[in-house]
Design goal:
Blueprint: E1 2-7, E2 16-18, H1 21-28, E3 32-35, E4 39-41, E5 45-47, E6 52-55, E7 60-63, E8 68-70, E9 75-78, E10 81-84, E11 96-98, E12 110-115, E13 118-120, E14 133-135, E15 140-143, E16 150-153, E17 162-167, E18 170-172
Parallel strand pairs: 3-6, 4-7, 5-8, 6-9, 7-10, 8-11, 9-12, 10-13, 11-14, 12-17, 13-18
Antiparallel strand pairs: 1-2, 1-3, 15-16
C-alpha cells in the first residue's frame, strides 16, 4: 500500500492511496506521479505514454514480478528503488521492461528515461530477458543457416526503439547482467 501524490498544474497536491497496480495505472495516465512511500506490487504496472513517475525520498517498490512495463513513448522513471519482494522466494522478472506495444507493431517506443533508480536483487538466474532493465524491441523471428535456432530480428519496415536514456542508476545483487 503506497501513497502517491500527483502534481497538478497549480502545484497543488492531492494524496491518492493506491492499493492495486491497476489503480496506479489509472492514476499514471492522468497525472505526473510522485511516489512518497514504500509499497508492494504483485502485478506488472503498464506505464502509459507521457507518464512521469518520480520518487520523493527514494521510496522502495517491492516486487515479485516485472515492476514496470514501458511500451509507449515519452516516459520517465526517476528517483526510487525497485527491490525483490520481501516475502517471495521466487525469482522476479525485470525491474523495467521496454518493448513494442505488441510483437507485430511497426511503431516502437522512444524518448524513455530511467534515472536515479536503485535495482536490488531483480531477475532470474539463467533466464534470458530478466535483467533489471530489459530492452527487447524485436518483432520477427528469422532462421539462421548455421543451426535450427531462430534469431530475433527487426523487420525492415519497422521502427527501432530509440532515445533510451539510462542515467545514474545503481544495480545491486543483479542475478543477470544489469541491462
Amino acid at each position: 500500500l503506497g501513497i502517491l501524490t500527483p502534481s497538478l498544474a497549480k502545484e497543488e497536491s492531492i494524496p491518492l492511496q493506491i492499493s492495486l497496480p491497476g489503480s496506479l495505472t489509472g492514476t499514471i495516465s492522468s497525472f505526473k506521479i510522485k511516489i512518497v512511500g514504500n509499497f508492494d506490487i504483485t502485478k506488472t504496472i503498464e506505464v502509459p505514454e507521457g507518464a512521469k513517475i518520480t520518487g520523493v525520498g527514494n521510496p522502495v517498490i517491492y516486487t515479485s514480478t516485472t515492476a514496470f512495463s514501458i511500451k509507449e513513448s515519452n516516459v520517465e522513471l526517476n528517483g526510487f528503488t525497485i527491490s525483490k519482494s520481501r516475502t517471495s522466494t521466487v525469482p522476479t522478472g525485470p525491474g523495467v521492461l521496454i518493448d513494442r506495444p505488441n510483437r507485430n507493431s511497426r511503431v516502437a517506443p522512444s524518448n524513455i528515461t530511467i534515472k536515479n533508480i536503485t535495482f536490488n536483487g531483480l531477475g532470474t538466474a539463467s533466464v534470458d530477458q530478466t535483467s533489471p532493465i530489459t530492452i527487447l524491441g524485436f518483432n520477427k523471428l528469422d532462421t539462421t543457416p548455421l543451426s535450427d535456432e531462430k534469431l530475433s530480428i527487426l523487420g525492415a519496415t519497422n521502427q527501432p526503439i530509440n532515445n533510451i536514456n539510462i542515467e545514474d542508476n545503481v544495480f545491486n545483487i543483479s542475478i543477470n547482467t544489469a541491462i
